[in-house]
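WARN no homologs supplied; continuing
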Amino acid sequence: MTLGSHQTTIGKTQTWITPKFILDDLGPFDLDPASSWVRPWDCAKTNWCGGTTGDGLELEWFGQVWLNPPFHRYEVSRWIGRLAAHGKGIALVHARTEAKWFEPIWQHASMIGFLKDRLYFHYPDGRRAEANSGAPAVIAAFGLDATMRLAESKIPMIRITEWERP
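OK structure emitted
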């Protein structure tokens, strides 16, 4: 792939498990509204997977939320908007700062951490993916508790707390 080539905006799968070191560093969390049915570890005390527990976008969110949303360009905006409205939690997303779906982060996040390295997500069986995520990642904090967690994190990142809000 060359610098000018396009990357796909809808992956072959939406099931990418957050690396455990991130959860260990930033957690614990009360709710993961976009969890995978099959996962090697829980991302929060309560994990909603759709189906019998309902759609995580339809149910009432509570507590500190961990959000690793589906990275589908037509779905991610609903998840990020919902976390911004909830106002308490942390999201892990691609650093697509120019994308329309990133606007709730620019408008409502209290801190943004730009990860220094590309992430390797995990498969539902716990194995680390062979390739990195294919794009830089950011961790966005919403609310005071989430901001403190991100500020104290040992994850290598550049943190910003001030930017021109749209």
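Residues 1-13 have pLDDT under 50 and may be disordered.
OK
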